[in-house]
Design goal:
- With 154 residues, this protein is an alpha+beta fold.
- The protein is built from 5 helices and 5 strands, in the order E-H-H-E-E-E-H-E-H-H.
- It is globular.
Amino acid sequence: MEIRKLNPTETDKFIDLIRIFETVFEMENFNIPPKSHLSKVLEMKNFMVWVTEKDQEVLGGMTAYTLDQYYSQKPLAYLYDLGVKPDFQRQGIGKALISSFTDHCFKNGFEEVFVQAETEDIGAVEFYRATGAVEKEALQFSYFPKQVFLNQKK
């Protein structure tokens, strides 16, 4: 197995990973964006995609955003999504992805790598706890979709 960062020309591999996310995250009625949009996303300097492959088949991967700070010269990395094909879960692929990614970030001077997990998503919470991450408690507040606000004001 090989873990590596995708380059901007590997849109088809990115699509393979998104399809894994679609399955793992049980995304109903999901429509994948056009390939031209995904190519633009892959070209963004503040976005990274890492995959685990075996015999050129994507088994899992993760996406992350780089966040420049105004109070430090060191960037942060926000691990956005991580998923592994169901048949390959619980074989260390997710942990290996995180290890490879955090090593990359450490070597490139990042101040911190962080990820969010909803408390109700017990599988994700247990997974991230098992990776040795430092756990911090926080609340997340969202402003969209607007429908939420309209329902709350009634």
